[in-house]
Amino acid sequence: MIRVLIVDDQSLIRQGLKTLLELEPDLQIVGEAENGQIGMQQSDRLHPDVVLMDIRMPVMDGVAATHAITQQSPTPKVLILTTFDDEEYVTAALQQGAIGYLLKDTPSEDLAIAIRAAHKGYTQISPGIVPKLMSRLSAPPDAPTPPTELDHLTPREREVLTLIARGASNREIAKTLYISEGTVKNHVTNLLNRLGLRDRTQAAIFATTYLGDELKDRREGVDL
Q1: What is the pLDDT of residue 137?
Q2: Per-residue pLDDT reduced to its tens digit, 124-156
Q3: pLDDT of residue 27
Q4: Is 8 helix (H, G, I), strand (E, B) or coil?
Q5: How far apart are CA 89 and CA 10, in angstroms?
Q6: How far is CA 74 from the centre of its chain?
Q7: What is the distance in angstroms between the CA of the first residue and the CA of the last residue of the chain?
Q8: DSSP collapsed to 3 states, 52-90
Q9: Could you give the CA distance from residue 200 to residue 37 in angstroms, rounded to a whole number?
């Protein structure tokens, strides 16, 4: 029996997926979560084999939650299931440990097959996404040049940015840096404005792209 956790901020989507997947004799829905943070907690408690993860969600998005969940032991397979086929989301999710990236127009029977394959460790990518990934892979591997806006961040904002990239919630950032959650929210707002970013997902992608060495140092030196 393959144990499945569904993480999606829309209750109708969660209920629809649960109803469809429970028709499969070898799939068991062990839990649901409406955002990435709750999904991370549920995963740690329920130990699912596969997590169906949406991308855009409040509190903690799917990219950050994927990173956090893939650090757990035992480690479930995270299969992204979303309506967004943006190249940056696909790349970020896979970089953070997702086993695959599917769109919500995937037929239910194909989704069940994908879950079984993901459980075995096979990468699953929706057909419409493959050309975008191939185009990205065939592009010249130029080293990214950090934008000048990065120099405008304060040292504390830079710390917050690296922790966002590690998948930390505001509460975890506050605990790590010994500051209040309100102060963390202010730092997040400021750094998004300074960098011209829309949300935490873009911030995580930005940090992964331009702060690789700093992220590595923080993984070695900071325990959330």
Answers
A1: 59
A2: 888 888 776 766 656 555 556 777 888 889 999
A3: 96
A4: coil
A5: 19
A6: 18
A7: 32
A8: EECCCCCCCCHHHHHHHHCCCCCCCEEEEEECCCCHHHH
A9: 13
Evaluate if residue 23 carries a pLDDT over 90.
Answer: yes
Give the burial string for 106-137 (b: 16+ CB within 10 Å, else e): beeeebbebbbbbbeeeebbbeebeeeeeeee
Phi, psi angles (nearest 5°) of residue 2: -95, 120
Mean pLDDT of 108-119: 94
216 by Cβ neighbours in 10 Å (0-12 / 13-18 / 19+) ranks as exposed
Both tokens of 104, joined, read: 């919500």
Return the residue matching tokens 């950032």.
Answer: 173
Quote the tokens at residue 118.
Answer: 């993901």
**Buried b / exposed e across 48-74, counting CB within 10 Å, b at 16+?**
bbbbbbbbbbebbbbbbbbbbbbbeee
- What's the residue count for the chain? 224
AA identity, residue 17: L
Angle in degrees, 0-180, between the axes of helices 155-165 and 170-177, rounded to the nearest 10? 130
Q: Percent of the chain at pLDDT above 90? A: 62
The better pLDDT of the pair 144, 108 is held by 108
For residue 74, cis peptide bond before it (omega within 30 degrees of 0): yes
Q: How far apart are CA 43 and CA 48, in angstroms?
A: 6
Distances (CA, A) of 181 to 37, 172, 184, 186, 192: 15, 9, 5, 9, 16
